Amino acid sequence: EADPASIQIDASEIQAAVSADTKLSSEIEALQQRETEFTQALTRITEGSESAFKTLDQAVADGTARIERAMKEEYGTRIRESLARLKEVLAAWKQAASAMSSDWSVQWDALTGGADLLTCQTELDRAARQFIDTGSASLIQFRQRLEGISQDTEEPTKGLVLGRALTKDLQPAVDAQQEVVKLARSATLTGNLDLATIVQRVTGLRRQVSDRRAQIETSLRGKILDDLKKNREQTIRQRREQLTQRADDLDREIREHIENVRALVRRKDQQRTDLAERFRLQDERAAALRSLADIPREAPSAGPAAEPVLVEFMEAGVGSGEPADRRIVRSLLIGFGTLFVFLIGWLSVHSYQSWHRSRQAIEACTRELQAATRGQEGQSRRRDS
To answer: What is the domain range of residue 266?
Structure first.
């Protein structure tokens, strides 16, 4: 089963579902309004920072120059050390302001370039806190050094005069530093309640929109997954039906093939039986022809020789004292005898001619049988080989 999270959804489908969701549309509209307010707030903060940084930079430069002039005068060691520490504090302010200005400039470019507002605010907050932390610690040192100069015991008069003068001359630097601190606090959530409220609302609306989008995407994935399951089940069902039909067709074809094979086997068996019977008859015929060929060729006897018939002619009218009717019978017998002898001779001749023709036919048949026998024996030898 497919994992719903692995299903890819087209962006157009998500956009269509988002547009159709009235709750999400209202939340997106509210988020856009809050993000507009958020952009305006960050823009106001970053736009006013450039002049503040320039003012601080100029005030630090002037303060540094004033301290350097004081260091050229004749003061004791403790005053000189305090002057040097004041100069280091001003240098720290300048360095911290430069770092903050650089970071804010990057975030200003990001804002104009359409970067994520919460990311820009986080980076502005980080740079501002670094400057605030550095400025707060250095400002304490700055005031301690000024008090130290005013309360110097080695040169109390000079120290008091110099302390008052430096407090007045370095106040612009202190004011500029505090102005940048104020600006930095305006970029932090703890220092700017309005900004914190906007950030909170934007964060909440983004969470709501993200959750609603996730719900819509989950619903879309579930729908797509259901469609995939239905399509898969339909495909499986169609495939099963196709395979079942194919199996039935194959069973029918196999049965037909088996019947054809059986019929072919029966035909082959009948052909083998017929062929064996044919060979048997041919063998019997060949044996009969061989037996016939072994019979000696003898001419049949012409039958008993006809005894010569003595025909005695007597003169008609010469009486022998025999009665006339007897003579008539005798004459008839003599005539029939002659006819009988003729018939016997004719039958003998005809029988000899018939026997001669039969003998010729038998010899021709014998030759044909011998030729057929030789052909059969040649086929048998080829079959055996």
So the answer is: 250-384
